[in-house]
Amino acid sequence: MTFNLFDLYSFKTMWKPINAELWKKLEVVNLWLTNVFDLDYTINELATIKSLDLSDRQLDFKIPLELENLKELRVLNISRNNLKTFPSVIEQLTNLTALHLSRIKLKTFPSVIEKLTNLRVLNVSENNLTSLPNYIGCLANLRILNVSGNNLTSLPGEIKYLTNLRELNVSENNLTSLPNYIGCLTNLRELNVYENNLTSLPDEIGYLINLEKFRAHKNKLTSLPDSIRNLTKLKVLDVSFNKLTSLPDSIGNLTVVEKMYVCYNELSSFPSSIGKMKSLESLYTHNNKLLFIPNEFENLTNLRYLFITDNKSMKDFPFQNLKNLDRYISELNFDQSLL
């Protein structure tokens, strides 16, 4: 059962006395208190809850020590607050499986997190972190790690021990390269590395054989590794806004890709192997230097959306052979709102 607490007075005098039995079954509490100084009292009354949301409260005080009494707590969200110090009491919450610490002005990674070995979800996005600690590798149960929107310049070697990760988001940082040991994260389903300063991808990216979504847009990539052929479960590929001059022939191995974004690059042609990507439904190729479209496009029988504007030197394309095409956006009928 979920309870949204807006007014502590009504909670004390009306809601709890009338609903004593329901209170015992309470599992999720979203606290929107009118008086944040009542938080310590409230926490003492919530011993059995499993999820506590304190986000967006503009909290600028220390979270009370009573928080350690929430032994059943599994999910804690204190994102988007102005905490003066990080609440060390969190290290007592050893049953936590999800911890959200986005936008709380962190400059260093909290050392107390090392003890939270049951975590499956950790979100420290949009802070001021410049590095991740070596002990990140101790969080072996992590399924989702979000460190986007920080000032990271590299990833520690110990990240290779997070072999249970399903989603890794390191976007919007200052990474200039991905380490070779990224290939150890073979259970990844989603990898976001967009808006960094990457100039290349390691060959070991090909070890991520379970990857379904890969977003690497807004970097400085000049090529894609041939090992991309191994990402045969990939459904979404976004390498737009880079400096790619060609796509590897091995891209034809990505036969289950449904959406591919290669716009805003320097491509002059497509490999003929693109005709093997028969699951492709949406293809964004605008703002390149394409001279022609290979005849193999006729094999893309599931293609419904093709965006091909701003390829100034391209010859006419016989799109009438694509029977299922719903949107063909060319130089002559380009609608920016469709992007």
Write the layout of secondary structure elements.
Blueprint (H helix, E strand, L loop, with lengths): L1 E4 L2 H11 L1 H5 L3 E4 L7 H6 L6 E3 L21 E3 L20 E3 L20 E3 L20 E3 L20 E3 L20 E3 L20 E3 L20 E3 L20 E3 L20 E3 L20 E3 L19 E3 L10
Description:
With 339 residues, the chain is mainly β. The chain has a domain of 119 residues: Ribonuclease Inhibitor (Leucine-rich repeat, LRR (right-handed beta-alpha superhelix), Alpha-Beta Horseshoe). It is built from three helices and 15 strands. Helix 3 links the parallel strand 2 and strand 3. The N terminus and C terminus are likely disordered.
Helix percentage range? under 10%
| Overall average pLDDT | 83
- Cα radius of gyration in angstroms: 25 Å
Task: Choose one word for the global shape.
Answer: elongated
Explain briefly what this protein structure is.
With 339 residues, the chain is mainly beta. It is built from three helices and 15 strands.
Features:
15-stranded parallel sheet, 6% helix, 14% strand, single chain, disordered C terminus, mainly beta, elongated, 339 residues, Leucine-rich repeat, LRR (right-handed beta-alpha superhelix)
